[in-house]
Amino acid sequence: MSSTLSQQFGKVAVMFGGKSAEREVSLNSGQAVLNALVSQGIDAHKFDPKDQPITDLIAGEFDRVFIVLHGRGGEDGSLQGALDLFGIPYTGSGQQGSALAMDKVRSKYLFVGANLSTAPFAVATEGKPFDAEAIMKSLGDKVMVKPANEGSSIGMSQANSAEELEKALENAYQYDHEVLIEQWITGQEVTVSILNGEALPIIEMRTPHQFYDYDAKYKSDSTVYLCPAPLAQELTDKIKHLAVEAFALLGCKGWGRVDLLIDANEQPKLLEVNTVLGMTTTSLVPKAAKAEGISFEQLVVNILRGTLA
């Protein structure tokens, strides 16, 4: 099998690291993917664009790229566009799907335009007039503030007053000039991994933190993951259908993850779509795959197989 896979895929660059705020997460994910591919006999090599120009992909005669670069420069469509110009196949979504999913503000507008369930929101732009009092009143006096183009909950915070909102915006503006302000929804946090157009088992995340933040994702040992999530079948089907719809709406393909909240009335609300996910053996997509009977090694080979299409 190993020689067959090696012949199928040729020389593979596993791109991870990079220069984004999520470099540390990317390094862990990329190394896990690289190890898994090599263990399957695939001719895979580390490629860190922080240390190497992207033209080295051509000089090194790489046949395809497994993208494990989180955040800007890897998940926002810029790398995908460059690889399209080079004619080098790569994993996951293309330029447009990547860019739309990375942009929380524009993906929100698309959800609303397609009548997909999502929380009410407002948008703030650095340097433009903004009425914090009016926004808090319109969104219910508690909000979540998110930089438009960051991942891993970086720059996110909650606000319970106009004063707290102003401070949250100052923090978010360190990461992006445009910020999403979303109505706070008290409920269950769930995520749906998508693999080749199909939804994997839903995961529910339970944390003592105010929300599923960076620490809860990567540092805390108090976060509990329930997979499959203990939900009624009708609700499970509804969430999976909504996730697949949102993924397709943004033009995403291959693999990804859709994050949602379930409100007090058991109505799922879309949060965001992610196109380059954490890929350590304890990350969410591998957890969902495992619940479906797919090993980590099978998962990465399956994702890479999408580059053959």
Automatic annotation (TrEMBL):
Swiss-Prot/TrEMBL keywords: ATP-binding, Cell shape, Cell wall biogenesis/degradation, Cytoplasm, Ligase, Nucleotide-binding, Peptidoglycan synthesis
InterPro entries: ATP-grasp (IPR011761), ATP_grasp_subdomain_1 (IPR013815), D-Ala_lig_Van_CS (IPR000291), D_ala_D_ala (IPR005905), Dala_Dala_lig_C (IPR011095), Dala_Dala_lig_N (IPR011127), PreATP-grasp_dom_sf (IPR016185)
Primary residence: cytoplasm
Catalyzed reaction equations: 2 D-alanine + ATP = D-alanyl-D-alanine + ADP + phosphate + H(+)
SUPFAM superfamilies, per database record: Glutathione synthetase ATP-binding domain-like, PreATP-grasp domain
EC primary class: ligase
Location of the protein in the cell: Cytoplasm
Keyword check for Coiled coil: no
Taxonomy, superkingdom: Bacteria
Enzyme Commission number: 6.3.2.4
Keyword ATP-binding set for record: yes
Classification via NCBIfam families: D_ala_D_alaTIGR (TIGR01205), PRK01372.1 (NF002378)
Classification via HAMAP family: Dala_Dala_lig
Identification of the protein by name: D-alanine--D-alanine ligase
Species name: Psychrosphaera algicola
Gene name per UniProt: ddl
